[in-house]
Amino acid sequence: MKKFLTLALLLPLCLGAFAQKKKKRATRERTPKQELVYDNINYLPAIKSVRLHPLDVENAFPVIELHSDDQLTLSFDDLRGDVRNFYFSIEHCGTDWKPSRLSPLEYAEGFNEERILDYTPSVTTLQPYTHYRVDFPTRNTQPKIAGNYLLKVYEDADKSRLIISRRFYVLAPLMTVSPQLVPSVNVAKRNSNQKINLKINTGGLTVNNPYQDISILVMQNQRPDIQQRLTTPLFVSNNELTYNDNNTLDFGGGNEFRYIDLRSLRLASERIANIRMDTAVYVTLLPDQNYRDASYASVFDENGNFFIRNQDKANADTESDYAWVTFSLEEDAPEPGSVYVVGAFNKYIRDDSNKMTYNPATQTWECSLLLKQGLYDYEYVRVDSSGSVDVSFASGNHFETNNTYQLLVYNRRAGTTWDELVGFIEISN
Fold first, then answer.
1. pTM of the predicted protein model
2. What is the architecture of the domain spanning 176-253+403-428?
3. d(C-alpha 144, C-alpha 132), whole Å
4. How many CB atoms lie within 10 A of CB 117?
5. For 38, 107, 178, 245, which has the most beta carbons within 10 A of its beta carbon?
């Protein structure tokens, strides 16, 4: 009788606990379905601090050599704070970042899908999050051919429930690239622009029509918004292609990036005006001046990159907090258009999240971004009413500016329908 009473008393408690667990599971919403974009996209506002780089080489260009032991590291935070079943896969693309006319069996070995198993919840942060990381290619997911690839991350093995897409590159080093960085041949741009001339040795590859089969892409500081593409060499001689047309690969030098140091939320660094902690962390930066017409001044920067770092805690990945950081740019007579804060931290994408608002009372453009503790390079970009983008409106152009250029060479072999990445080199001045 006593055992029966004990069971009778415990049964409602167990049922209540079961109901609570069931209710908790029911309230968790799955990632909504998204339309795939073949670009560097975070599909949810809750996905932050996405980094894709070669293993142990932070913020380097995401390129690996085909059939090598090279790996890339993907890491990101999910501010929803729970643990989710994220999977990733890869897709081969053309030089225009449209899908190649290839099946997964033709460009990938293995199953071409794998679950991300490395995840850790944040520790003692005002903003809870879960930190995820994966190194790839893996035994189950490996590229078979060279070229452009899109990495896709999604929930519950459902490729329509996307959270991240990122571009990366697989190299078959079959051609040699020899670049030269010189001042612009245009006298009016001699002090502001940087020009690249290059020669390509096709090696043992047979190129039947270099005007059709070979294409060149040159980026400045890994920026998708500052790049040029070439398809026509100026000279062709045996196995050497020369690209030194006076009107091509002429880039505005820009200026050194602005930067902020958020490694500590206890002590304000030189660019921080105020740090306030409430239910969240709020950081106000000192106003930035518009120095478009100023002379060049040498300042060390990271060419737009960012690093997750923490001087207050031991583990930057999981113990770093997030802060609402307010940027402001002085401009007393703003021109029509929109202004954005950009950097590698948001892949230079311009949308409502980093669009600034003009404050007539302070005569400044203002914007607040949610950033994880670390070091950040950034700059301001203006888009006028016609849609024209001016990446130097607040900084100017200078030949002396230190920039890094990525040069990629693609080849389409006779009888194939896809583009291979056959040459790659980085140069800096």
1. 0.91
2. Sandwich (2.60)
3. 26
4. 10
5. 107
- In DSSP terms, 261 is beta-bridged to 375
Q: Is the pLDDT of residue 392 over 70?
A: yes
Say whether pLDDT at 15 is over 60.
Answer: no
CB atoms within 10 A of CB 77: 24
Right CATH for 41-171 from 2.130.10, 3.30.1490, 1.20.58, 2.60.40: 2.60.40
Q: Read off the tokens for 259.
A: 């930067």
Three-state SS at 16: helix
Element spanning 131, H or E: strand 130-136
DSSP string over 392-413: TTTT---TTS--EEEEEEEE--
| Predicted confidence (pLDDT) at residue 63 exceeds the cutoff of 90 | yes
Say if residue 137 is preceded by a cis peptide, omega within 30 of 0: yes
| Half-sphere CA count of 310, side-chain side, radius 13 A | 16
Pick the CATH number of 258-390 from 1.20.120, 2.160.20, 1.25.40, 2.60.40: 2.60.40
**In whole angstroms, how large is the CA radius of gyration of the chain?**
25
Which residue, chain included where needed, has tokens 């100017």? 396
